[in-house]
Amino acid sequence: MATLIRFFAQPKYSIINAKLTGYELFIRKRETRDSTWFLPENFNKFTPKKIITLLTDTLKTLPRGLNSISINLNQEQFVDLNYFELLTALQPKTPIKLQIELTEQQAIDKTACESSEIVTMAKAYQQAGMYLCLDDIGTGANQYELVQQLAPFVFEYKFALQNIRQLVQLTELKTQIGIWRERAQQQHKLFVLEGLETFDDLALIQLFRPDVVQGYYFGKPYLLPIASDFA
């Protein structure tokens, strides 16, 4: 039997009105219908057509009035014209705003993508009316230099607490959040604080006033149905 993949969804909430603003989608796979869902070791093993077909089938089951969903692309996926063509063709067919989250992950199956490739595609997505978020800013490949190059084409910066929570002291963590929050304000970007897991983490909302929050405290990722489940 072929590997099964599905999207899991984690809610995102607006600080302005304390309302659900959308979902971030995560791909999970399992080998059989009775086995456990787990994180794929290499997302590039799934073709763009397979991923966007799954996305299309998932969108059909989402509730009316949902503002947006975001889908993660690593660097190799992001510069792949097949993803660009499929996503830009899908957007006019759904009232839900499709957001692209460029993750900090570099290419796995080939040499690292050139920053010029990434910038060119970011510009193309913007010109096509797609909403681009820089995920995991300050970690992995999404460091300051690349962020600055992409800034003209990006609407949103996302800071992931879970990426560095265990690596730095609380004081340094707050310093890093503050730096990226200030950059977002100066550059007129939305700022998302991800990885809020406990009641104590809510103090960070008061300190930094992110535009959007996300994390286990507000909801863990859960399996989304697809339209064909009901056929």
Automatic annotation (TrEMBL):
Residues 1-231 form the EAL domain. It comes from the Bacteria. InterPro entries: Cyclic-di-GMP_PDE-like (IPR050706), EAL_dom (IPR001633), EAL_sf (IPR035919). GO terms for molecular function: cyclic-guanylate-specific phosphodiesterase activity. SUPFAM superfamilies: EAL domain-like. PANTHER family: CYCLIC DI-GMP PHOSPHODIESTERASE PDEF, SIGNALING PROTEIN YKOW. This is C-di-GMP-specific phosphodiesterase. The lineage of its organism: Bacteria, Bacillati, Bacillota, Bacilli, Lactobacillales.
